[in-house]
Design brief:
The complex is a heterodimer of chains A (578) and B (101).
Chain A lengths: L10 E5 L3 H14 L2 E5 L2 H10 L4 E5 L7 H10 L6 E5 L4 H9 L4 E4 L4 H50 L9 E6 L7 E7 L5 E8 L4 H7 L3 H9 L4 H15 L6 E9 L4 E7 L4 E4 L6 E5 L19 E4 L5 E6 L1 H4 L10 H6 L10 H13 L8 E8 L2 H19 L10 E11 H6 L2 H13 L5 H19 L12 H15 L4 E10 L4 E9 L20 H12 L2 E5 L4 E7 L1
Parallel strand pairs in A: 1-2, 1-3, 3-4, 4-5
Antiparallel strand pairs in A: 6-15, 7-8, 8-9, 9-10, 10-13, 11-12, 11-14, 14-15, 16-17, 17-18, 18-20, 19-20
Chain B lengths: L1 E7 L2 E10 L4 H13 L5 E12 L1 H16 L3 E5 L3 H9 L7 E2 L1
Parallel strand pairs in B: 2-3, 3-4, 4-5
Antiparallel strand pairs in B: 1-2
Classes of the chains: A alpha+beta (578), B alpha/beta (101).
Chain lengths: 578, 101
């Protein structure tokens, strides 16, 4: 059927066995501006319909052989719908019902009244226009939905690549992600630095659905790239804030909690801005050993100059347990009586379970509460295993290094080795305050040397530099780290002194020497401090020397083929086999 | 969510009740826009007494209000949150952005 406006001219088929009636009706229709086709009976009518598709049929009911209802029934059997007005002298209710059952669009009574005929035709045309418009809108809507579905599927695949949940494969981390819709506004990212610190990020974008999921994408790349380069949390979280702030206007923001766990040293540093408290639980989930409360505004709210990257420190030496992070989608699960599940609800099943089961028990509680339905808000749950297995690994690592020392023949680099490249850097107070030196140096080494500088080198340079900066230039007392709350005091003092630093200097010379089968990096470092009493650092037995500062030098002695402190101890030469 | 505005002596009070979530974005903005444009209003108070629950979108809307108010040279204060709402504001550290009374 064509789309007609009310003023359009229609092709009207008039079916009546009496010529006079045909004549009268045709005259009226022509006066209205419509075109008229004529048929004397049902058979002729069907023939006309087959050839020209009329827009409307005025069908006489009282006809010999085939009456109007019969004709209508036959017309209705075809696929095309042609509107029919029955024309009759009078009708009783039964006939009206019959007419309606055969799909009558209207009824006209003889003698035909011009105004009534005209009004009914115009009303019909309006209905026709409306239904045509509706059909078109439905078609457009169907097409649109299909296009949107294609786009959404593509978007979901694209986002999945970015988020790479399936690539998270750290032995110490278990996680659960349940989005409220197709797309999750919650993000989980896990990676290790070159010196094996574990970084875990939980991000919760305001709202949920596609727009929320898009909001977290800018933060995955810097998290992974900076962690791979060995940056610390403050540098990374500062960059994440800058990205969210610059790319997403308010009212968008991203709540986040990021932790750096040193599983060997049993310490962790946390930045929590807008996420529920992160809990450190005892192995069986029974006791709460520590809780990291949200001290900061979520990411994206403050401009980079106002951003606060200060961390909360916790060391769990002598203990073990699980670190549990979750988004508010988990704690806010409605228990059906209006009450929120909360941490207490989540941990209910976990209490008194064995250490290995805590995560599964929490997962069970969440599944129970949801009862198969989608959650109202995206749910993310992460559990970091801080149990004691890590200790054994550290000892194993040191054994391997001893083996390496035994088989390697150390040549005097001045004679038989081949000089490959050298680098000298002098950093004064201004640079020491702002530069993340270790990742920077490793990056430079990586660019000069080509390829990855590796974990061992990262550890050695880290240790040497941190000693030089903390104890040499900043003159911090490392024994402070031993005490229970010492870590926080230590780092607070460090931050203070670094900010106030006016004079101080660290000089580094690095040289790569290649031999027949291996190569060696010579590292010289000098700080402007006063050195230390070397007689205190005699043991190179990792397991015996449990103190933090002592462990640093013992670790160095195990990683380096040669380690020598010169003069008052403010100068050091280390050789690392590559 | 019901929104009631009262205005006296330079202080406009926006009293909200019900659930403050992402569906209320337009209504909320329509309620405070004229206040920000008014020369007589010096400060806005958002009365949360009737709010049972707010979600992260609501937090975003409040932040947006604050940004616009600051641009218009007016103050914004949050009032009377119930314990649930107070806890949400606390986790988000809103006390760093707003006076909450």
């Amino acid at each position: 059927m064509k789309a007609n406006s009310s003023a359009d001219s229609l092709n009207v088929l008039v079916v009546d066995d009496i010529e006079m009636n045909q004549f009268l009706i045709a005259a009226m229709l022509k006066k209205m501006g419509h075109k008229v086709l004529l048929a004397n009976n049902g058979a002729e009518a069907l023939a006309v319909i087959a050839v020209t598709s009329p827009d409307l049929i005025l069908l006489d009911v009282m006809m010999p052989n085939m009456d109007g209802f019969e004709v209508a029934r036959i017309i209705r059997r075809s696929n095309v719908w042609v509107p029919i007005f029955f024309v009759s002298a009078s009708m009783n209710n039964e006939d009206v019902v019959r007419g309606l059952h055969t799909g009558a669009d209207d009824f006209l009574f003889k003698p035909l009244n011009y105004e009534i005929l005209q009004s009914k035709i115009m009303a019909f045309q309006t209905r026709l226009a409306m239904s045509t418009k509706l059909a078109k809108q439905n078609k457009d809507l169907r097409n649109y939905r299909e296009r949107v579905k294609d786009e959404t599927d593509t978007a979901r695949d694209f986002i999945k690549q970015f988020i790479a949940l399936d690539k998270i494969n750290d032995a110490a981390v278990r996680f659960l992600l349940k989005p409220a819709e197709n797309f999750s506004g919650d993000l989980i990212a896990v990676a290790r630095t070159p010196d094996d610190r574990l970084h875990v990020l939980l991000a919760d974008s305001a709202g949920h659905g596609l727009t929320a999921a898009l909001a977290v994408i800018p933060i995955t790349q810097p998290f992974y790239q900076m962690t791979a380069k060995g940056f610390d949390i403050p540098a990374i979280i500062r960059e994440l804030n800058r990205r969210v702030h610059d790319y997403l206007p308010l009212p968008r923001f991203v709540a986040a909690a990021m932790v750096s766990v040193n599983l060997k040293m049993k310490s962790m540093q946390m930045w929590n801005g807008g996420c529920p408290p992160v809990l450190f639980l005892s192995p069986n989930g029974e006791q709460l050993e520590h809780r990291f409360i949200s001290h900061h505004l979520p990411l994206g709210v403050l401009a980079p100059e106002e951003f606060d990257a200060s961390l909360e420190y916790f060391n769990y030496e002598g203990k073990q347990g699980h670190l549990m992070m979750c988004s508010d989608g988990a704690t806010e699960i409605n228990m059906g009586d209006g009450e929120a599940l909360g941490h207490s609800g989540l941990l209910l099943g976990a209490r008194q379970s064995s250490a290995g089961q805590v995560f599964s028990k929490i997962e069970e509680v969440i599944e129970d509460q949801l009862g198969g339905a989608s959650p109202v808000d995206d749910i993310a749950l992460i559990m970091v295993d801080c149990m004691d297995v890590a200790e054994i690994k550290a000892a194993e690592m040191s054994d391997d290094n001893d083996a390496a020392v035994e088989t390697f023949e150390f040549f005097d680099s001045d004679n038989s080795g081949q000089f490959s490249w050298g680098l000298s850097v002098t950093l004064t107070a201004a640079q020491l305050k702002h530069l993340d030196v270790v990742p920077f140096i490793l990056n430079v080494i990586g660019q000069i040397d080509g390829g990855n500088a590796g974990g061992k080198l990262f550890l050695v340079i880290s240790e040497l530099f941190n000693n030089a900066l903390d104890h040499g230039v900043l003159k911090l007392d490392s024994s402070l780290k031993n005490q229970a709350e010492g870590m926080e005091l230590y780092f607070a003092a460090r931050a203070e002194r670094l900010a106030a630093l006016e004079t101080g200097e660290i000089v580094m010379h690095l040289e790569k020497i290649t031999f027949e089968k291996s190569s060696c990096l010579k590292i010289f470092m000098r700080d402007s401090g006063e050195g230390f009493d070397q007689s205190k650092m005699q043991t190179n037995d990792l397991t015996q020397n449990q103190q933090r500062h002592g462990r640093g030098i013992a670790l160095l002695e195990n990683m380096c083929t040669d380690l020598e402190y010169i003069g008052n101890g403010s100068e050091v030469i280390a050789h690392v086999q590559l | 969510m019901d929104i009631n505005i009262s205005n006296a002596g330079g202080k406009a009070v926006i009293a909200l009740s019900g659930r403050f979530d992402f569906t209320k974005q337009r209504d909320f903005k329509t309620s405070y826009d004229p206040l920000l444009l008014s020369a007589t209003v010096t400060g806005l108070e958002v009365d949360l007494a009737g709010i049972e629950y707010l979600d992260s979108s609501a937090l975003g809307m409040l932040m947006l209000l604050r940004e616009r108010a600051v641009a218009a040279g007016k103050t914004v204060v949050l009032k009377n949150p119930n314990p649930t709402v107070a806890q949400i504001l606390d986790i988000a550290n809103f006390k760093k952005l707003f006076a909450i009374i």
